[in-house]
Every structure is written in C-alpha cells, then in structure tokens.
C-alpha cells in the first residue's frame, strides 16, 4: 500500500466505506483533532514525570481509545460496528473520581499552569474541548457513535482532574483566576 493516494490533491479524503468527503468537513475536523490530541499525548508521555506511573498508564490506555474514537468518527453510520462503547466511558469516570480526591477542594476557577506536567495536561484538556466542539458540529448533520462524544466530554474533565492532582503531588499550588480589573488596579 502506498503512503500517498493523491485523493487529497483535490482537497478530499475517503471515509471508512469509501465515501469521499472534503478535508474541510466537520467529520474530518473531528477525527483530525482527535489525531492531533493523540499526538500531543505521545509528546506528553515523554515529558511527564516518571513518578506518575498511574497517569502514564492511563494516558497509554486513552491513546488506544482515541484511535478508536477517530475510527468511529471516520465511519459513516451503518458501515460497521463502532469500537467505542460505554465501559470505556465508565472506566474514565472512575479514573476522574480517583484523581479528583487528591487536590484540595476549590470553588473558583484556575488558570492553566503550575508544574510542567500540569501545563501539558491543560493543553490536552483544551485540545479535547476543541475536538468536542467539532464532534457536536458533526452531530448536527450526521449520525455518529454517541459513546465517542461521552468519552471525549469526560476526557476533558479527566485532564482537568489530573492536572490538579499533579500539581498537588508535586507541592505546587494551582494558579487561581483573579478578575483582571483587580489585578491591574494594583499596578
């Protein structure tokens, strides 16, 4: 199989089942953003502190599910069975519950940051949110595996919880949001 198909020369790509669509479609934006997120997680894995072996394991598992999410998003309804199923969503919810208990409870917004690990996780969180927006846009016109949307929705929560847990584990306080009027008033 050749790496190049020349289908993209006209700005198109093929979906599972052979249907040709524009590379500018919401479907391609959806699974393309999932692919971008998965690549980001590969980078995150080589950067994250090796002491966080539980988080490293989770991310390796998440990368596998993300590949399935991309496949499901590239599969028009009825072309084959979907890969992402409810137990993957339930697993992610359980992991969120574990990490959410590590940092102190807060009742205010945080600014992405703290440790390097937490900062990288916040980038993953916001990339996940972008993927979710594309998936919702796709749902307006096409039928998709809704378990993908649920998994992606939970995944941004997961990255938030893990970023906070990493800061707590490394003894670094979260950076709290302050109204910019108050911040600039002090200058």
UniProtKB/TrEMBL annotation:
Start and end residues of each Cobalamin adenosyltransferase-like domain: 3-165
UniProt cross-references to SUPFAM superfamilies, sorted A to Z: Cobalamin adenosyltransferase-like (SSF89028)
Enzyme Commission (EC) number: 2.5.1.17
Enzyme type, top EC level: transferase
Domain of life assignment: Bacteria
GO BP annotations, alphabetical order: cobalamin biosynthetic process
A molecular function GO annotation: corrinoid adenosyltransferase activity
Alphabetized Pfam families for the sequence: Cob_adeno_trans
Keyword tags: ATP-binding, Cobalamin biosynthesis, Nucleotide-binding, Transferase
Catalytic activity, as annotated: 2 cob(II)alamin + reduced [electron-transfer flavoprotein] + 2 ATP = 2 adenosylcob(III)alamin + 2 triphosphate + oxidized [electron-transfer flavoprotein] + 3 H(+); 2 cob(II)yrinate a,c diamide + reduced [electron-transfer flavoprotein] + 2 ATP = 2 adenosylcob(III)yrinate a,c-diamide + 2 triphosphate + oxidized [electron-transfer flavoprotein] + 3 H(+)
Coiled-coil annotated residue ranges, if any: none
Functional pathway: Cofactor biosynthesis; adenosylcobalamin biosynthesis; adenosylcobalamin from cob(II)yrinate a,c-diamide: step 2/7
Description of how the protein assembles with itself and partners: Homotrimer.
Family of this protein: Belongs to the Cob(I)alamin adenosyltransferase family.
Protein name in UniProt: Corrinoid adenosyltransferase
The organism of origin for this protein: Brochothrix campestris FSL F6-1037
């Amino acid at each position: 199989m050749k790496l190049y198909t020349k289908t993209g020369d006209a700005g198109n790509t093929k979906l599972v089942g052979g249907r040709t669509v524009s590379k500018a479609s919401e479907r391609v934006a959806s699974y393309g953003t999932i692919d971008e997120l998965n690549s980001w997680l590969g980078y995150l894995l080589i950067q994250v502190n090796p002491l966080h072996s539980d988080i490293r394991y989770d991310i390796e598992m998440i990368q596998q599910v993300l590949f399935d999410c991309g496949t499901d998003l590239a599969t028009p309804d009825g072309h084959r069975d979907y890969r992402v199923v409810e137990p993957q969503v339930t697993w992610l919810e359980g992991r969120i519950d574990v990490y959410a208990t590590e940092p102190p409870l807060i009742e205010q917004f945080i600014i992405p940051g703290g440790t390097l690990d937490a900062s990288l996780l916040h980038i993953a969180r916001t990339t996940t949110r972008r993927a979710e927006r594309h998936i919702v846009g796709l749902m307006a016109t096409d039928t998709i595996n809704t378990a993908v949307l649920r998994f992606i929705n939970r995944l941004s929560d997961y990255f938030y919880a893990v970023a906070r847990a990493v800061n707590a584990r490394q003894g670094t306080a979260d950076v709290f949001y302050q109204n910019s009027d108050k911040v600039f008033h002090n200058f």
